[in-house]
Amino acid sequence: MDEALLPHTDEERGGWKTFPFIIGAIMGVAMVAYGVSSNLEVYLIKGFNVGQIDATQINGIASGCISFAPVVGGVLADSFLGCSAVLAAAVVACFLGMLLFTLTAILPSLHPPPCAPPTPCQPPMTAHLTVLFTAIALLATGVAGTRYNGMTMGANQFSTDSDRTAFFNWCFVSLYLSSIAGTTILVYIQDSAGWHWGFALCTAITAIAFLFYLFGRPYYLHSKPNLSRNHLMSFCREGKLLIRFLPIISSGILLSATISVQTSLTVLQALAMDRSLTHNFFIPAGSMNVFVLATAATSITVLGCTRCRLSPLSGITIGHVINMFAMVAMALTESRRLAVVATNTFSVLWLVPPLVLIGFGEAFHFPASVAFYYQDFPASLRSTATGTFAVVSGTGFYMSSAIIAVIRRSTNWLQDDVNESRLDNVYLTLAGCCLLNFVYFLLCAWLYKKNTENREPKREEIY
User: Fold this and answer.
1) Per-residue pLDDT tens for 183-193?
2) Tell me, what CATH number does 46's domain have?
3) pLDDT in tens, 391-414
């Protein structure tokens, strides 16, 4: 972020001493956000009596808001309030959001009564959904001010590029660890001990995250927002150069949308499968995405340790191909499940190989996309560059809801009973979309390279 550090005379401020406090706040909110968003679809179905496909669409919209939120937080920090104020307000907002989530699980007046077959389930009232959506909005606000803004605040504590690079690397590792902990520990507690205990624990974690922030305040180097008119004019002028990036950016949106649809449908599949590992232990449906996260984290680490260096566009290309084959694998797995569901149980572990494949693809296209935006955007728009992936991801979540709506309206493949659905056909459709999008991406990449070579001397790409 292009923020000027405020003058300071205390040499005890800044540096690695601030790391545990800033990263503690970031990790606390991230763990809670992943723990809630990973299981939100299940909470809508079981806690609010929402139909499965409606829950999938609502989850897509909510995930889109959470993904877009860091961009808004970055703008507020850059132009109005500064990183520290935005980070503090965000953690407080997340705490209030989790307090509301907890109340929706505890108070009977804030959720519909549980289903009691054969009586039809009572759908949620407008007041129920209003409180729930307010809680989601507050959670998104918490993510808005901590994810990228927290990284920027942390980087501002250092004076050398090597320290900043090390800080960013530890940030990404911490975020992956937080996401894995959220989608396993917190989701398991929600499913086994009860929603109220799971959300209450999330509330406590957020409170601890705020304490981390407060304890570090004496050591922070604070920054002030950039309100310069010249800075705004420069942003508008160089922003016009971003038009040539739009085709490649748009190809990333559909890639993100297919993964979003897959993530939501995987939860529905898991709910209908045998999730027991032992007599007393089962895998929560909302935790299935941990196989994607763990594979991506491991693969990124291994790829980073190898001497093979791919250009960003090459990495994105490989990610597109792997994701396409992953959708085919998901279709084959679902087809096999439907063939035996009437007579036998089907273990949820059959979903692991396709999910691992998706995670492996993410290890290529996720860091490669960030590297491409950061490397090729104008130098004065680097903060915009790092936030571009959030825009792509958020738009992909919104598009996933639209894709589900179109398939639901034009076919009978999506029913509230997943055993009466044809999710295998949905996955094959997604694979077809991935193929067309891959061809589109190759065309966009070719045109981009051609235009870049005509505009400026060829330079070495660094991945």
Assistant:
1) 999 999 999 99
2) 1.20.1250.20
3) 888 899 889 999 999 999 999 999
Asked whether residue 133 is domain-assigned, the answer is yes
Mapped onto helix, strand or coil, the DSSP state of residue 159 is coil
Contacts (Cβ under 8 Å, ≥6 apart) of 446? none
Provide the greatest CA pair distance for the chain: 74
- Name the CA radius of gyration of the chain, rounded: 22
Let me know the angle formed at the C-alpha of 194 by 188 and 195, rounded to the nearest 5 degrees: 90
85 within domain boundaries: yes
Q: Say whether both 200 and 241 belong to one domain.
A: no
Q: What is the mean pLDDT of the chain?
A: 86
Q: What separation in angstroms does the CA of 257 have from each of 11, 261, 335?
A: 48, 6, 22
- Coil, strand or helix at 420: helix
Residue 202 shares a structural domain with residue 261:
no
| Euclidean distance between CA atoms 183 and 276, whole angstroms | 17
Which value, to the nearest 10 degrees, does the dihedral of the CA atoms of residues 144, 146, 151, 156 take? 100
- Put simply, whether the predicted model's pTM sits higher than 0.85 gets the answer no
Helix, strand or coil, per DSSP, at residue 425: helix
Six token digits for residue 299? 């693969």
Which residue type does 163 have? D
- 23-32, 106-115, 295-304: least confidently modelled range: 295-304
Query: For tokens 């010249």, what's the residue?
Result: 230
